[in-house]
Amino acid sequence: MDNALKTIIDSKPIVVAALYKFTPLDNLEERRTHLKALLREHDVYGTLLLAREGINGTISGPRSGIDIALDAIRALPGCADIEHTESWAETTPFQRLKVRLKTEIVRLGMPEINPNNQVGTYVEPEDWNDLIQSPDVITIDTRNDYEIAIGSFEGAVDPKTSAFREIADWVTENLDPAENKKIAMFCTGGIRCEKSTALLRQKGFSEVYHLRGGILKYLEVMPEEKSLWHGDCFVFDDRVSVRHGLEVGDYAWCPVCDRPAKKGTVCCTDQLSGLQRQLPPSHKYTNSTNDLPEQPSEPRREKPED
User: Which domains does the chain have, with CATH numbers?
Assistant: First the structure.
C-alpha cells in the first residue's frame, strides 16, 4: 500500500462511497429489505435510492463494511460494473441509514428520458479542461442554485434552478440545437448529467458531452494547480463540501435555513435576534458569503445527489 494512502486511511478510517447505475431493477421491496439489513449489520450509514430505473446513493462506514456493501450492490442485475467514487472521513458524515424506493433515482419527471437508451459523450477528467476552454463549447452546471453558490467551473453557465426537474424547462427556453452546437454538462457525481444529456440528445443536440465521474472524480484526480474549478463542491452529507483531493471543505450547515454557509458564519441575517445568543463566542455572524433563500422545503443533508 502507498505510504501516503496508508496515512490517509489511518487518520480517516471512514470510507465514503458515492455511486449510481441506470439498469432495470425488479423485486424492489425484497432488494431494499436485504440491502438495509446487510448494511446495518456492518455499520454502514447513508442513503440508497432504488427504482425500476436503477440505484443511486452515498454510503459511509469502515472499509470492511463498505466492501461488503459494494459487493452486494454489484450483485444486483446490471450492476457488476458499477463505478463509484471514494473519499475518507474521520467520522461518518451520515447519522442514519436509509434505503428507499422511488419512482426515479434522480428526479427529472420525464419517464420517456432513459439514459439506458442514449446519453452524451463521456469526457475523462484529464480531458475536461481542454473541452470547456474551447470557444465553441457552452458549459452548463446542472446542479441546484445553492450548490453552485459555493463553487463551480470557470466560465460555466448557472441555470439558476432550485431543483433538477427544472432543467428541462431551462433547456427549452435557453438552448437551440441549431445555434448551440457543442454542449458540455457536469454535476456532482455524474448522475444528473446522465439524464440531462439524454434530454438534450432527444431534443436534437448532436454534440453533447459530460464529465465522467462528475466534479468529485475531477477533484480527486486533477492537481489543484491545473484545475479550472473554483470554490468548494457541495455534498449531501455532514461534510457539506469538499475541495481538491476530496478534503473536507470550508462550509457548514447554517443553523437557521439548513443551507451551506462559510464555517463561522450563518446566512440569515433577519434571524439574528435570538440566534446570536445560541452561537458560541467564536461564531462570526455575517451574510457576506451567501445570497440564498431562507427556508428550504426539506433538509439538504443526508440525501444522494438530486
Answer: 3-101 (3.30.70.100), 121-221 (3.40.250.10)
